[in-house]
């Protein structure tokens, strides 16, 4: 047995190995054999790799030395020893570390031995030097690797560096080649000791190769905080996404997802189970990248968002384009092999093994195609996720910088859409972006291949495709237009819904649900009109594109018949396979164009928002705190407007203020005089027209309308600062919150509802005051902080807080409380936006006419409470003597409450965790969706049409196979062939048209039914639902979930149905001609079922978690925009940005792992499909040609080539539909909400004139807010005669506002009854009840619209009546002065009207209504004494014959009432005439005394 010379030659010349006569493939293989299997080139290659590795090491060593002399930190170990060291930790090693270290040591020893043996060989000197040196360099490399591996434990390296891993992979390949040559030489008995070393070293190199694939070093770190660290850090480190530390192989095949998917398969995933994002994908890193690339001002970019995105992510886009090219290059291997397979089965073959070569080529091509395709999808989705993250954080930061008028012009609802919809659509574009160039390139390649087969008819096919694309482009233009209109109208609907949800309490008080329902429905009808047009445009495009393969085939074969070109089975089925290959890009092209058009529109909207006017930070000169006696706040010749563009038309003007450090300055004036605007101007919130503003020191702001966050009371007060218990307790004490916290079951851990919905107005005001006090700023701007609290509390706050805790601070106090003005350093009197008078109290009384008017109005009201009581007549509230029985009753009540609390095992959480279904989406949800519109007839018609359509597609291919068979050559009729084929194609077009349009109609009707059901259910929900459900949770269902139901689910469900039926067709045809593969159908079906179930267990839960984690992002954004003035004043923007980033990261980790799991499934299913195809093809080439005809091989392969794609698409789309069906599930949850009582009881309506007298009787009335909470009203019994004026007073939080709510049945009584004019109100419909009462609520709410639509929302009154009402409520002049008169604009939340003016407009509403029963909940709290006196006079005159129940903190307001009800801790403590209560020791007498003496001793 002679050995080949190239194996034993130690020469580095190729003459021994490469024949001079060889050419082509033979020459190529001989060169490969020489380079990789001859001893000399092998050693040279090995040495080259080792030297390159050592050179890289040397470069980093030099860098390390250099950095040691230039900086304190050294990143030089990074390529070899990664920087994941943890402070205060223990290091452990497992078997992986020990094996890696052992392998490195053994290889070093082996290579040293080989080197010694190499140098001592009896061979020619040149070979001896080369062989010995080669092994020596290898030994040196592994000696250094041994040191690096050993140091991994010291440096706490969790993963091997990429440099080391690449070296191990390449080294392993070269050692395997050495071993192969060595084994061959040993077999031929010509081997030596070096060959034996090569063979042994394969084992240890193989282990290092495996270690490089896994990536883990085997080093484990456990934290040792000794109680000092944060326990969460370890948790955070341990659950970072597997992507962060995954090896290349793991990333290539998504192996890093296996642990998560396994966990999801065993048990439903929760939020804590989903790993956090890798550092490179986190929102904070991406946001800083976006900011760095934002165009500079001098670039003057009109489209800054898209320019910045391109600058930030161009490299990722380019990488994705490379993946798309790889995928495209292997797509046409299958169709090109069809002719070879047909020829092979017909007997034309170059080798007996040619069939197997062809199958192997097909399998490799399909494997690469599947891998490239899913890597492309994954990386595109990852890029989309990163872009969405970037946009949301950038939009949030922009929202915090917006000027006031810019904020009003967009509105919260629209800004929510920018985040929820527009950012998502730009992200979705990334998957479709490359279709713009890939699809035309794919078509061009297909036509070139087609031309080589059939010649000129390929040009006809091109003409057909150009016509199709022309139709698609026209359809896309239509879709663009419809989409733009659709989004405009969706914005309007969302704005209306947001406003309705935010003001639900006042809507329910006024029984306006029907009016607002009609308003939202009107916006929805406009939106739905455009939705229908958009739906028909999408489906029109889809019909054209799904018909394209058959239509183009008919044109191509028809022209071939006309030109007399022969059509063989191999030609025909290569052509159909090419058209089928084009089917997928042609099908997805419309979706890509839709996504692109939507993204372009969204980018335009985002550009406009991001270019909106920002607050001018330079408008106010901010300096550090000044010394004693220096100026703290200075305004010189200041004129300010709320409108950014206004050069004139200032709201406040000619301002000149100089407030010294430590001064208390009061700002007073009538309603609408510009007091709140003055504070806003000082804070820099208004547009400065002229003048100069200087503020020295940090600022704190307490708004007139309290802004409270959804969180605990403690969180609201701390407002991001660390807990200082002494300072915290002082703030609570000074703001009179101690008693309130004692009354709450969970004290300061009580969770506050959205917008502070479960607190009284006074409690909200005091919490935000405590927040300001705790921040310990230099300058305090307090906007009417006393309006929402009672007299005693107001005095305490002034004494303990304003003049106590804040005595050394500079304070600007807007107030209507004249009593406190004696005790201030300076008074600024405002009128018509100007400071008309300023000075001390006594000075202004002598010189100021405006101030004198205010004081005289106050003194007039005080005359009613002034008296000369003896000290013994009045007692403090605490000293009111209790009867023994009353004392005993209260004690029992308190004990029972405590027992109830403990038995309930209550929770301090008010906001309920969002409901989340687990497990698979139930069949009931599918049934509800498909049968909601037309019952079972809808889906039955759609499925029947889909089956008929697939039958026509298969019929066309059977006809081609039949007509091109060799057996039919003699009787072939070209005219009959093409006529029948065209007839089948026309029938197919009619069926696909009918099917898609019927599916569109069913989907549209269903979405409209769902929307109406949800809207009805939400509006009928009780007030407790809105107290415990954030509006973001409802809005996310009305925006993103409704968008899914409107467009995505109907369209994708229709596509999924077609894909499954097409898959059925492929399997039928494949099994028909390769019948042994029928036996593979069972394992194929089982594998697909198992994989789908395994994947869906996790994917479904992650999709649900994605929906749940999305709502907090939206809620936090709308909450931040509402309180942006407070946030900016306290300079807390960074804290809120961090919170936003955390919420975005929390949501996007769901997105990332969901996308990964989609591609994990897709690759595996495509590979299974490819294996099935190759096995069935193997059977076709093994079976004799008498059984499998060549034309049938062509038909079977033309279908089979699309099997892997169809298999994946069907399973993926069905999974995608199931994930999107979570939206249906979420909407269905909100269509079955618990409903409040009937709005109208037709069988028991009240008389038309009810209440005619206004008699009110309460019998043992008891109220609790929810079944598991203590009683708030504890058995009140009283009787009110018609026409009586009742004043309700008491301490803040005593139950006064609850009494009003129960009379309107916003809260249902837990016990007792309320009888009005002989009718128990529990027997009436809620609208019958509420619409008959008038109310001026505690918080004045205005809606976006006009003055007319606010004062008369339902449109029942004439203009004359409205003007009369405005005149009576003192707003006639204000409205008449506006250009639009009654049609003057009222913006979101009425922000362009002062709080006092809003309250007067609410008064105007009840003037128009003129009910027999009027409720006033601190209705004049936000107006000055002068306006209050006028309002009280108007009410006395206009409602002389009505029963009025008025809650008030101003004692003069209730002094002229017929009787006064004192409510304390849920009991009616006193109920009598004011004069009688004053005469005897009473709680009311104590309140009067407090009010009369409120400014004494301050």
| Broad structural category | alpha/beta
Distance N to C terminus: 118 Å
Strand content: 5-15%
Percent range for helical residues? 55-70%
Uncertain parts? 72-88, 223-238, 867-906
Total of helices: 50
- Report the principal-axis shape: globular
Number of strands: 26
The biggest sheet amounts to: 6 strands, mixed
In a nutshell, what does this entry contain?
The protein is of the alpha/beta class and 1498 residues long.
Describe the structure.
The chain has 1498 residues and is α/β, with parallel strands linked by helices. It contains 50 helices and 26 strands. The chain has a six-stranded mixed beta sheet, with helices on both faces. A six-stranded mixed beta sheet has the order 20-23-24-17-25-26. The chain is globular and about 125 Å long. The chain starts with a helix and ends in a 6-residue tail after the last helix. Mean pLDDT is 79; it is low at 72-88, 223-238 and 867-906.
Supply the key terms.
1498 residues; alpha/beta; 6-stranded mixed beta sheet
Write the layout of secondary structure elements.
Layout: H1 5-8, H2 24-37, H3 39-70, E1 89-93, H4 95-119, H5 125-154, H6 162-187, H7 193-214, E2 219-223, H8 232-238, H9 248-253, H10 258-266, H11 283-293, H12 304-331, H13 333-346, H14 354-401, H15 404-410, H16 412-432, H17 435-454, H18 457-502, H19 504-510, H20 513-563, H21 569-610, E3 620-623, E4 631-641, E5 652-660, E6 664-669, H22 675-683, E7 687-696, E8 699-702, E9 711-712, H23 713-718, H24 725-734, H25 738-743, E10 751-752, H26 761-775, E11 779-783, H27 791-805, E12 810-814, E13 826-831, E14 834-839, H28 841-847, H29 849-862, H30 884-904, H31 923-931, H32 937-963, H33 974-1020, H34 1023-1028, H35 1031-1073, H36 1081-1122, H37 1124-1129, H38 1133-1182, H39 1190-1200, H40 1203-1229, E15 1256-1263, E16 1273-1280, E17 1285-1289, H41 1296-1303, E18 1311-1316, E19 1319-1320, H42 1326-1330, E20 1333-1336, E21 1345-1346, H43 1347-1351, H44 1359-1368, H45 1372-1377, E22 1385-1386, H46 1395-1409, E23 1413-1417, H47 1425-1438, E24 1443-1447, H48 1451-1455, E25 1459-1464, E26 1467-1472, H49 1474-1479, H50 1483-1492
Parallel strand pairs: 3-7, 6-12, 6-13, 8-11, 11-12, 17-24, 17-25, 20-23, 23-24
Antiparallel strand pairs: 1-2, 4-5, 4-7, 9-10, 13-14, 15-16, 15-18, 18-19, 21-22, 25-26
Helix pairs in contact: 2-3, 3-5, 3-6, 4-5, 4-7, 6-7, 10-36, 11-12, 11-14, 12-14, 12-21, 13-14, 13-21, 13-39, 14-16, 14-38, 16-18, 16-21, 16-36, 17-18, 17-21, 18-20, 18-21, 18-35, 20-21, 20-33, 21-39, 24-26, 24-27, 28-29, 32-33, 32-35, 32-39, 33-35, 35-36, 35-39, 35-40, 36-38, 36-40, 38-40, ...
């Amino acid at each position: 047995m002679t050995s080949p010379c190239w194996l034993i030659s130690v020469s580095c010349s190729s003459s021994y190995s490469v024949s001079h006569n060889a050419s082509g493939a033979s020459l190529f293989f001989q060169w490969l054999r020489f380079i990789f299997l001859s001893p000399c080139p092998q050693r040279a290659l090995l040495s080259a790799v080792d030297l390159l590795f050592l050179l890289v090491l040397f470069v980093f060593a030099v860098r390390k030395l250099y950095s040691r002399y230039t900086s304190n930190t050294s990143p030089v170990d990074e390529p070899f020893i990664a920087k994941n060291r943890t402070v205060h930790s223990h290091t452990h090693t497992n078997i992986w570390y020990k094996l890696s270290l052992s392998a490195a040591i053994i290889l070093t020893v082996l290579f040293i031995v080989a080197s010694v043996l190499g140098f001592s060989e009896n061979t020619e000197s040149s070979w001896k030097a080369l062989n010995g040196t080669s092994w020596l360099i290898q030994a040196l490399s592994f000696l250094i690797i041994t040191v690096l591996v050993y140091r991994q434990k010291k440096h706490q390296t969790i993963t091997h560096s990429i440099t080391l891993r690449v070296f191990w992979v390449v080294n392993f390949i070269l050692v395997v080649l050495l071993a192969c040559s060595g084994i061959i030489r040993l077999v031929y008995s010509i081997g030596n000791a070096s060959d034996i070393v090569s063979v042994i070293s394969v084992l240890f190199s193989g282990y290092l190769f495996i270690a490089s694939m896994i990536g883990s070093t085997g080093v484990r770190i456990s934290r040792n905080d000794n109680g000092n660290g944060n326990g969460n850090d370890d948790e955070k480190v341990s659950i970072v996404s597997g992507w962060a530390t995954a090896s290349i192989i793991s990333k290539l095949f998504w192996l890093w997802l296996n642990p998560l998917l396994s966990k999801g398969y065993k048990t439903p995933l929760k939020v804590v189970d989903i790993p956090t994002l890798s550092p490179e994908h986190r929102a904070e890193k991406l946001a800083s990248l976006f900011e760095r690339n934002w165009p500079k001002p001098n670039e003057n970019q009109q489209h800054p968002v898209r320019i910045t995105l391109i600058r930030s992510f161009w490299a990722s886009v380019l990488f994705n384009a490379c993946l798309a090219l790889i995928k495209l290059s292997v797509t046409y291997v299958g169709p090109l092999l069809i002719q070879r397979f047909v020829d092979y089965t017909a007997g034309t073959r170059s080798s007996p093994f040619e069939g197997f070569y062809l199958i192997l080529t097909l399998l490799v091509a399909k494997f690469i195609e599947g891998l490239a395709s899913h890597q492309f999808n994954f990386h595109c989705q990852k890029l989309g996720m990163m872009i969405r993250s970037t946009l949301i954080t950038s939009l949030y930061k922009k929202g915090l910088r917006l000027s006031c008028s810019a904020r009003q012009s967009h509105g919260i609802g629209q800004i929510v859409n920018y985040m929820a919809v527009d950012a998502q659509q730009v992200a979705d574009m990334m998957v479709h972006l490359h279709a713009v160039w890939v699809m035309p390139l794919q078509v061009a390649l297909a036509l070139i291949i087609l031309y080589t087969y059939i010649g000129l008819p390929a040009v006809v096919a091109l003409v057909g495709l150009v016509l199709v694309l022309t139709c698609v482009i026209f359809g896309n233009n239509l879709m663009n237009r419809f989409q733009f209109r659709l989004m405009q109208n969706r914005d309007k609907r969302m704005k209306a819904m947001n406003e309705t949800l935010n003001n639900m309490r006042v809507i329910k008080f006024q029984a306006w649900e029907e009016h607002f329902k009609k308003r939202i429905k009107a916006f929805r009808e406009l939106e739905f009109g455009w939705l229908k047009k958009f739906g028909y445009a999408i489906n029109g495009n889809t019909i054209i594109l799904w018909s394209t393969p058959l239509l183009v085939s008919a044109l191509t074969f028809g022209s071939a018949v006309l030109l007399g070109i022969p059509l063989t089975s191999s030609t025909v089925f290569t052509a159909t396979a090419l058209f089928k290959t084009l089917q997928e890009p042609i099908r997805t092209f419309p979706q890509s164009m839709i996504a692109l058009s939507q993204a372009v529109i969204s980018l335009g909207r985002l550009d406009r928002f991001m270019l909106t006017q920002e607050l001018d930070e330079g408008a106010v000169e901010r300096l550090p705190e000044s010394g004693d006696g220096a100026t703290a706040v200075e305004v010189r010749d200041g004129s300010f407007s709320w409108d950014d563009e206004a050069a004139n038309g200032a709201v406040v003007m000619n301002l000149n203020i100089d407030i010294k450090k430590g001064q208390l300055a009061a700002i007073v004036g009538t309603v609408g005089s510009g007091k709140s605007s003055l504070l806003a101007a000082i804070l820099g919130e208004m547009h400065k027209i002229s003048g100069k503003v200087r503020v020295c020191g940090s600022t704190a702001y307490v708004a007139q309308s309290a802004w409270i966050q959804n969180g605990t009371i403690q969180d609201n007060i701390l407002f991001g600062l660390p807990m200082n218990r002494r300072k915290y307790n002082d703030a609570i004490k000074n703001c009179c919150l101690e008693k309130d916290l004692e009354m709450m079951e969970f004290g300061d851990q009580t969770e506050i509802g959205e917008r502070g919905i479960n607190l009284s107005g006074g409690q909200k005001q005091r919490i935000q005051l405590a927040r300001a006090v705790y921040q310990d700023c230099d300058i305090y701007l307090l906007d009417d902080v006393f309006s929402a609290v009672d007299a005693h509390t107001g005095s305490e706050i002034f004494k303990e807080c304003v003049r106590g805790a804040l005595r050394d601070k500079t304070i600007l106090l807007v107030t209507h409380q004249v009593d406190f003005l004696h005790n201030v350093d300076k008074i600024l009197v405002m009128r018509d936006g100007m400071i008309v008078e300023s000075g001390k109290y006594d000075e202004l009384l002598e010189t100021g006419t405006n101030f004198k008017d205010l004081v005289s109005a106050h003194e007039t009201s005080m005359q009613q409470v002034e008296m000369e009581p003896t000290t013994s007549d009045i007692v403090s509230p605490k000293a009111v003597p209790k009867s023994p029985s009353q004392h005993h009753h209260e004690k029992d009540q308190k004990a029972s409450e405590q027992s109830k609390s403990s038995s309930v095992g209550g929770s301090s959480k008010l906001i309920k965790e969002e409901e989340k279904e687990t497990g698979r989406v139930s069949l009931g949800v599918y049934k509800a969706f498909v049968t909601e519109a037309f019952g079972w007839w809808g889906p039955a018609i759609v499925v029947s049409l889909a089956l008929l359509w697939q039958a026509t597609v298969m019929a066309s291919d059977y006809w081609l196979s039949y007509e091109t068979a060799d057996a039919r050559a003699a009787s072939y009729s070209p005219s009959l062939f093409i006529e029948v084929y065209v007839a089948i194609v026309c029938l197919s077009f009619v069926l696909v048209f009918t099917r898609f349009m019927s599916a569109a109609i069913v989907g549209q009707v269903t979405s409209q039914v769902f929307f109406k059901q949800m809207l009805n259910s939400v509006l009928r929900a009780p007030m407790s639902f809105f107290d415990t459900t954030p509006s973001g949770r409802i809005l996310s269902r009305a925006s993103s979930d409704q968008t899914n139901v409107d467009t995505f689910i109907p369209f994708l469900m229709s596509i999924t149905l077609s894909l499954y039926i097409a898959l059925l067709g492929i399997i039928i045809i494949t099994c028909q001609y390769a019948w042994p593969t029928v036996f593979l159908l069972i394992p194929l079906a089982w594998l697909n079922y198992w994989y789908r179930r395994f994947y869906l267990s996790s994917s479904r839960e992650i999709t649900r978690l994605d929906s749940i984690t999305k709502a907090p992002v939206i809620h936090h954004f709308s909450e931040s925009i509402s309180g942006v003035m407070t946030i900016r004043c306290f300079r807390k923007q960074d804290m809120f940005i961090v919170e936003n980033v955390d919420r975005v990261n929390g949501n996007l980790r769901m997105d990332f792992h969901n996308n990964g799991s989609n591609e994990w499934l897709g690759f595996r299913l495509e590979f299974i499909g490819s294996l099935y195809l190759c096995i069935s093809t193997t059977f076709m080439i093994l079976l004799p040609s008498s059984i499998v005809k060549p034309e049938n091989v062509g038909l079977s392969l033309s279908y089979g080539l699309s099997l892997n794609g169809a298999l994946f698409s069907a399973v993926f789309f069905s999974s995608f539909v199931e994930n999107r069906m979570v939206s249906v599930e979420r909407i269905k949850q909100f269509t079955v909400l618990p409903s409040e009582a009937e709005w109208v009881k037709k069988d028991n309506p009240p008389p038309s004139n009810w209440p005619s007298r206004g008699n009110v009787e309460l019998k043992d009335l008891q109220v609790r807010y929810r079944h598991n909470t203590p009683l708030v009203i504890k058995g009140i019994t009283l009787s009110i005669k018609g026409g009586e004026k009742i004043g309700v007073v008491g301490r803040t939080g005593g139950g006064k506002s609850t009494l009003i709510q129960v009379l309107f049945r916003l809260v249902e009584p837990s016990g007792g009854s309320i009888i009005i004019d002989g009718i128990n109100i529990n027997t009436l419909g809620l609208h019958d009840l509420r619409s008959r009462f008038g109310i001026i609520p505690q918080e004045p709410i205005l809606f976006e619209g006009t003055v007319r639509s606010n004062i008369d929302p339902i449109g029942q009154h004439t203009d004359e009546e409205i003007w009369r009402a405005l005149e009576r409520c003192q707003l006639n002049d204000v409205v008449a002065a506006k250009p639009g008169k009654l049609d003057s604009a009222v913006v979101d939340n009425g922000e362009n009207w002062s709080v006092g003016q809003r309250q007067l407009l609410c008064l105007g509403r009840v003037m128009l209504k003129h009910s027999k029963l009027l409720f006033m909940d601190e209705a004049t709290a936000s107006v000055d004494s002068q306006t209050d006196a006028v309002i009280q006079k108007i009410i006395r005159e206009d409602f002389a014959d009505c029963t009025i129940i008025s809650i008030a903190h101003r004692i003069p307001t209730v002094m002229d009432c017929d009787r006064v009800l004192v409510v304390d801790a849920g009991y009616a403590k006193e109920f009598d005439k004011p004069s009688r209560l004053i005469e005897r020791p009473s709680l009311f007498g104590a309140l009067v005394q407090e009010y009369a003496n409120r400014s004494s001793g301050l």
